[in-house]
Specification:
about 120 residues
Length: about 120
């Protein structure tokens, strides 16, 4: 449905459709296609889409086994979400959960280095 409506979409709607299509492709295990779609999103998504393109990118990269790239993308997504969205927004929880899967830490758990490191 998203792919069919993309030719008629413009402005923020086009970006949302690109990212929604990419998320759907991720769900189907079509990670390379998902990356291609999310890269077609506008460079400056609207405020309400804060973190969404990077979150979808991180999901695709993680699915491809590119853990380091996925971690970078999900950290960007989480920072954008925390900066632009309400603290209770569900996307923040999604980003934290994905970060936990990628890093193997519990959600909200910080790296535990020795003091002074």
């Amino acid at each position: 449905m998203a792919r069919g409506n993309l030719p008629r979409a413009n402005g923020p709607a086009a970006g949302v459709l690109n990212t929604t299509l990419a998320r759907s492709l991720n769900g189907q295990g079509r990670y390379e296609e998902a990356l291609a779609e999310v890269r077609r999103s506008p460079p400056q998504p609207p405020r309400y889409a804060g973190g969404y393109p990077d979150l979808v990118t991180a999901e695709a990269l993680y699915g491809l086994g590119r853990r380091a790239d996925a971690e970078d993308a999900v950290r960007r997504a989480l920072a954008d979400c925390e900066r632009q969205l309400h603290p209770a927004h569900p996307r923040i929880g999604e980003a934290r959960a994905l970060l936990a899967r990628i890093t193997g830490e519990e959600p909200g758990e910080e790296s535990r280095g020795e003091p002074g490191e």
